[in-house]
Inverse folding.
């Protein structure tokens, strides 16, 4: 940093200039000096004018909220963090005029992100008993800004996932269930995909693949899953493989998913293989589909020995996935 700039910045901090205090706070934040960063932001909030320096105040409060929620400056103070977020989320962003200076976020953007964070905190509390999906839904609907490009893509994704699953209205009451709302799930996931969310492609592709809510769209499912499979997403690859197999496009299924069956770990050690559950499910599905192709000679020459080996591998890698696919075969839901 230029010495003359440092001197001017230090002078501005001593004079209580909001721009200098914000810049200093951000510099300290970047160097992970979180406690001192909070000190600068708190001083800014105290000295800044509520009208002239309103955007600096709002940016400082948002960052203070993030720091408190995540515990960057020590033990997480969720209550304080939520207090800051609620203050920001309740602001009328359009009432704060002026073009943001370098490093400042717009008021509307801060409000939307604060609303998203409030929804996330309601859906993911420290104690699972305190889950409040109603509040999460309320805040995410505000943050999503339906029809507006400025809306939070993360909120749109969260809403899509929320509506795609059933959930308890009250965590303590297992009988009070809110059912899935598939029309809303499709709507919000489509919003998220159109606004650039790669993460929304998988849940949307799976909904179309399975025809959830009676809205099966194989062409759309293939398009979404293929994009992710080409990028190396194992869950998308396995599901696309199962879809191709169900459509009797066996050679395509083998071409895209055979790689998932190539496991270097000895079969005797697969049950303790250190991979996450999503990869286990994907690899088990791939092993099962290839085993089925070997057994029936679908898209390849039949080989009973290879079929038995891969069936066993599928059940060891992830038994529930293998059982589910076996059930679909027995019910003639897939070849």
């Amino acid at each position: 940093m230029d010495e003359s700039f440092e001197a001017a910045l230090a002078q501005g901090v001593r004079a209580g200039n909001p721009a200098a205090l914000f810049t200093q706070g951000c510099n300290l934040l970047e160097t992970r000096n979180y406690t001192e960063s909070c000190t600068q932001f708190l001083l800014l909030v105290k000295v800044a004018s509520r009208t002239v320096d309103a955007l600096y105040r709002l940016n400082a409060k948002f960052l203070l909220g993030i720091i408190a929620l995540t515990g960057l400056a020590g033990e997480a103070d969720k209550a304080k963090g939520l207090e800051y977020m609620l203050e920001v989320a309740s602001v009328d962003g359009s009432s704060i005029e002026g073009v943001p200076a370098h490093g400042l976020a717009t008021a509307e953007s801060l409000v939307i992100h604060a609303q998203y964070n409030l929804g996330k905190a309601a859906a993911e509390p420290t104690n699972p008993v305190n889950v409040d999906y109603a509040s999460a839904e309320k805040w995410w609907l505000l943050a999503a800004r339906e029809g507006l490009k400025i809306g939070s893509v993360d909120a749109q994704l969260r809403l899509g996932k929320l509506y795609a699953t059933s959930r308890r209205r009250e965590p303590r009451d297992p009988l009070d269930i809110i059912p899935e709302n598939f029309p809303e799930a499709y709507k919000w996931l489509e919003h998220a995909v159109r606004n650039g969310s790669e993460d929304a492609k998988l849940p949307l592709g799976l909904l179309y693949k399975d025809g959830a809510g009676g809205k099966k769209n194989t062409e759309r499912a293939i398009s979404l899953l293929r994009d992710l499979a080409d990028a190396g997403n194992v869950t998308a690859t396995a599901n696309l493989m199962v879809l191709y197999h169900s459509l009797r496009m066996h050679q395509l299924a083998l071409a895209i998913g055979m790689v998932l069956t190539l496991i270097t770990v000895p079969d005797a050690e697969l049950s303790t293989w250190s991979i996450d559950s999503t990869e286990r499910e994907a690899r088990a599905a791939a092993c099962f589909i290839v085993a089925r192709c070997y057994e029936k000679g679908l898209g390849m020459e039949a080989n009973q020995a290879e079929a038995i080996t891969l069936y066993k591998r599928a059940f060891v890698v992830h038994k529930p996935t293998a059982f589910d696919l076996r059930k679909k075969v027995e019910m003639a839901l897939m070849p």
User: Anything to note?
Assistant: The CA atoms of residues 4 and 249 lie 68 Å apart. The radius of gyration is 26 Å. Strands lie at 167-168, 177-178. Residues 277-296 form the longest helix (20 residues).
